[in-house]
């Protein structure tokens, strides 16, 4: 099996109480891929500019990521995000965002990639997400992520797209904003009414909530005592979650619960280093070992 992810490949500038990094490899598609690669072959769909370092291309390819759908625009700059974390590190303070070549991005995939059954539409303009989805043949599982910027500025496009996907992934703030409900169970029910059969609400250090008509599942976060950089933790969660489901091939309650568990643990590794420092070294053995430790924390 394989999976296709549409998102950003970026150059991130991040500052936390543990230090700062400039122009490090980041972006939703990159973080997603580092976790998903542990379970299945990953096809990455994104765009970068002329300033994107070749070493980053080499790094992604060395990790087994298929980059045939990564557009290298000869003019223009790569998407850059600058952010800072303070206090409890749950929320990033965005200092600057430079869309660069992302502003004119039109995804291009091969005929073979159009037949991929597992698709993750990471956080980009919902019109770009729709463009790619319209070219896929018959996807078995489509998950969609978004952010408050699109909720506020392209709500109509986003709501239309939600009718065409199976899973909507959002953090608690985004879920409340789009649903208009403060209580997360009510928010999940409201979001479900917009179209997706399943809703995943990420709650940061408080874990994750899964909602569907068939069952509700809530899982705490892995108890971490040192958070270096939370950037990309949500995309890392999504990568392991979708990667596991693609590998398992069956979308049922047991596999969804296992996928959420793997996603939670993958995210716990992500926060232990800046950018992709920690997840780039991650192995399935590491993941399984921490899953075993985690089960001891949550089971009687």
Can you characterise this structure?
The structure is a single chain. The chain has 300 residues and is of the alpha/beta class. The chain has one domain (2-298): UDP-N-acetylmuramoyl-L-alanine:D-glutamate ligase (3-Layer(aba) Sandwich). It has helices at 28-36, 54-62, 126-133, 148-153, 155-162, 172-179, 184-193, 233-248, 253-270, 284-298, and strands at 2-6, 10-16, 19-26, 41-48, 66-72, 80-85, 92-98, 118-121, 141-145, 167-171, 198-202, 208-212, 216-219. Strands 5-4-1-8-9-10-11-12-13 form a 9-stranded mixed β-sheet, with helices on both faces. A 4-stranded mixed β-sheet has the order 3-2-6-7.
Radius of gyration (CA) equals 18 Å
- What's the helix count? 10
Query: Order of strands side by side in the largest beta sheet?
Result: 5-4-1-8-9-10-11-12-13
Strand residue percentage: 25-35%
CATH H-level homologous superfamily name: Ribokinase
CATH class: Alpha Beta
CATH fold title: UDP-N-acetylmuramoyl-L-alanine:D-glutamate ligase
N-to-C order of helices and strands: EEEHEHEEEEHEHHEHHEEEHHH
Tell me roughly what share of residues is in helical segments: 25-40%
Please give the alpha-carbon distance between the first and last residues. Answer: 35 Å
Low-confidence stretches at least 5 residues in length (pLDDT < 50)? Answer: none
Structural class: alpha/beta
> Residue-averaged pLDDT, rounded?
95
Total of domains: 1
Shape: globular
Describe the main β-sheet briefly. 9 strands, mixed
How many individual β-strands?
13
CATH architecture assignment name: 3-Layer(aba) Sandwich
């Amino acid at each position: 099996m394989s999976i296709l992810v549409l998102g950003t490949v970026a150059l991130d500038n991040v500052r936390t109480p543990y230090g700062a990094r400039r122009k490090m490899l980041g972006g939703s598609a990159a973080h997603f891929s580092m976790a998903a690669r542990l379970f299945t072959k990953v096809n990455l769909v994104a765009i970068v500019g002329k300033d994107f370092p070749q070493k980053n291309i080499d790094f992604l390819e060395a990790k087994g990521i298929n980059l045939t759908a990564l557009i290298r625009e000869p003019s223009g700059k790569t998407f850059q995000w600058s952010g800072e974390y303070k206090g409890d590190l749950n929320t990033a303070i965005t200092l600057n965002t430079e869309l660069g070549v992302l502003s004119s991005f039109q995804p291009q995939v091969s005929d073979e990639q159009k037949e991929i059954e597992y698709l993750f539409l990471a956080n980009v303009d919902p019109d770009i997400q729709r463009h790619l989805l319209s070219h896929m043949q018959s996807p078995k599982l489509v998950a969609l992520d978004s952010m408050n910027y699109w909720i506020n500025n392209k709500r109509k496009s986003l709501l239309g797209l939600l009718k065409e996907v199976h899973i909507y992934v959002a953090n608690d703030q985004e879920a409340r904003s789009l649903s208009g409900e403060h209580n997360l169970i009510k928010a999940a029910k409201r979001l479900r009414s917009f179209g997706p059969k399943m809703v995943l609400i990420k709650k940061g250090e408080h874990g994750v909530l899964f909602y569907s008509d068939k069952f509700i599942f809530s899982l705490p976060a892995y108890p971490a005592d040192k958070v270096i950089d939370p950037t990309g933790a949500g995309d890392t969660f999504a990568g392991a979650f979708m990667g596991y489901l693609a590998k398992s091939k069956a979308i049922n309650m047991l596999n969804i619960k296992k996928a959420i568990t793997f996603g939670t643990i993958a995210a716990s590794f992500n926060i232990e280093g800046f950018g992709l420092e920690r997840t780039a070294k991650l192995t399935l053995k590491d993941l399984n070992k921490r899953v075993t430790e985690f089960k001891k924390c949550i089971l009687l």
